[in-house]
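Fill-in record for Basic leucine zipper and W2 domains 1.
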Amino acid sequence: MDGGAGAPVRSASAPGVRSARRPPPQATGVSFMNNQKQQKPTLSGQRFKTRKRDEKERFDPTQFQDCIIQGLTETGTDLEAVAKFLDASGAKLDYRRYAETLFDILVAGGMLAPGGTLADDMMRTDVCVFAAQEDLETMQAFAQVFNKLIRRYKYLEKGFEDEVKKLLLFLKGFSESERNKLAMLTGVLLANGTLNASILNSLYNENLVKEGVSAAFAVKLFKSWINEKDINAVAASLRKVSMDNRLMELFPANKQSVEHFTKYFTEAGLKELSEYVRNQQTIGARKELQKELQEQMSRGDPFKDIILYVKEEMKKNNIPEPVVIGIVWSSVMSTVEWNKKEELVAEQAIKHLKQYSPLLAAFTTQGQSELTLLLKIQEYCYDNIHFMKAFQKIVVLFYKAEVLSEEPILKWYKDAHVAKGKSVFLEQMKKFVEWLKNAEEESESEAEEGD
């Protein structure tokens, strides 16, 4: 027999002794699992929340419209109350699905049919932009309603932009008063950043442009926009969406000129916008002039042909000579590959500029043009360090070639220079300026003796 057979057997329930592991009966296991399912542990006071979007009532557009219109009618014309109603309703109503219906109601008072008309059999409300007073203060208040709504429900941003683009295409279907209100509202919303300037693309619709609707709408829009900000802020917004050079497209092709644009908007009280467009047109013309100049120089066109072309562009685009000489200088200096060695670049520059002196001389017929050229030379020599020692040599060359004259050189030396490299360039010019002064005094003495 095994030695452990005679050992006393301890009870399974005896303390300190682990009982043998036995699998629980099958029935007991099932009962245990069911019991676990039925009696989940819970924390006291715990609430199981349903996501808000699951709580929202699903309506068709007509039912959604009825709910919004009923709520707006109850709030009345108190726009603070309207904003609170819209904020609260977003938790129950499906704004995401019916954004277009919501914005149609807030702007026009009901759902809009294609073309911008209200359906006769639909409910309407007078608590909307089109039924409000036609003044900037009221439109500013409505802008706050839209601003609060979209800040609260960020997903409405895209839907609102799409709505405004659609409304702009529907402009012919609205009355003049409704268009004016929408224009003022849009201007304020552009100013406060609720809308992006890209929505203005809708105004370039051929039919709206042809009938003059776009230009008239733009007058009201820009007035309210500039009233909220200024022309610089407006210009920056237009530039971001590459629309700063497209404003003349508000008019038909046969009227797309700077003269017509400035006359129309100046008479409408938007002189700052007119000046902005004129400046933009001039900047564009200058860029085009420089590009064409460089191409003509690289082809080696005769100077007489280049001069004729530049003078025609000056007249056509009203570009003053001091501006043109800066363009010609930049073009001349960009047509050559400059030597990297300082001791050689001066000689190369003199040879190159001597060749182009007749071209430069054609556009320095005014003292201001000569002074502009001197400043351009100073800035160029400072910005391109290899030219630091070449400044005086270039000025002397241009003096001898009659591109520059005594008076502008003396004025530059005295007080018209800029800070860039001032001490170096003034020192370089000291002896030449003294010589010019003496020559001028001698000429005056000779003139007096002749008298």
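KEY FINDING: DSSP finds 20 helices and no strands in the chain.
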